Amino acid sequence: MKSEIAKAIQLRYSPVAILFSDEKPAETLQFKEGRWGCVIAMLSAAAKGRTAVFDRKTYGCIGGGTGLGFGNTYTGMPGGIEYFLSTGNQEFCASEVGKNIVKNWPALSHGEAYKQTPAFAKSFADALPYYDVPSEYVIFKPLEQVLPDEQPAVIIFLATPDQISALVTLANYGRHGGDNVIAPWGAGCHSIGIMPLQEGRSEKPRAVIGLTDVSARKQVDKDILSFSVPYSMFLEMESHVPESFLAREEWLKVKERI
Predict the structure, then answer these.
(1) Which among 195, 166, 163 is positioned nearest to 182, based on CA atoms?
(2) Total H helices, total E strands in the chain
(3) N or C: which end of the chain has fewer CB within 10 A?
(4) Model pLDDT for residues 7-38, shown as the tens digit of each residue
(5) What kind and span of H or E run contains 119?
């Protein structure tokens, strides 16, 4: 499957498709069961031509399980996700169980300071659009390797600021208003997974700008953000490429420096 959008904006990397399947593809990257890993590292690998697969035992980290749509995996967060995102949970870390865990996970004690208080963090976690994928596997695949009989759930573009400007404009091109793209705060895997998946349930799905998660930034180039769309919106945007501004002088001037 090819993308006219990717060609028109000269993407550095391949768009990545998220697919659901009960069959595991051959020759894939996959985290080992019980081993930590970052979903965004797998996204980067898929954008460079590899296929990655996840299941309910190999999603890399607690946040990754939630972001990929394997339900609310934060229920297993030691000390509570609301403390980890904010001030830390020193009481838990002083317990017998906590002492063993915090040795390898010191942030449990002081928190990430992404939210000012546990209450603010809890309100965020409670409002996440938790999702239960309808298959055994979640697959990241370069878009050009998607087969004709496969239907992705989400398409992810890894884009520079110039390219993000084009994607935002194209997302609004064939629609009323100018609010067809959102940039919610959350984990990097939320912004490419459950958030666009939630948008896909809407009658008027929106695109999601992501990878603003500070913890995920080291997994991507310094000038890259993600732009994720439900598959139906991707097809809509693709259909508008030939007639849109992407063939006009203003964009072509910007395109010269990409």
Answers:
(1) 195
(2) 13, 7
(3) C
(4) 999 999 999 999 999 999 999 999 999 899 99
(5) helix 118-127
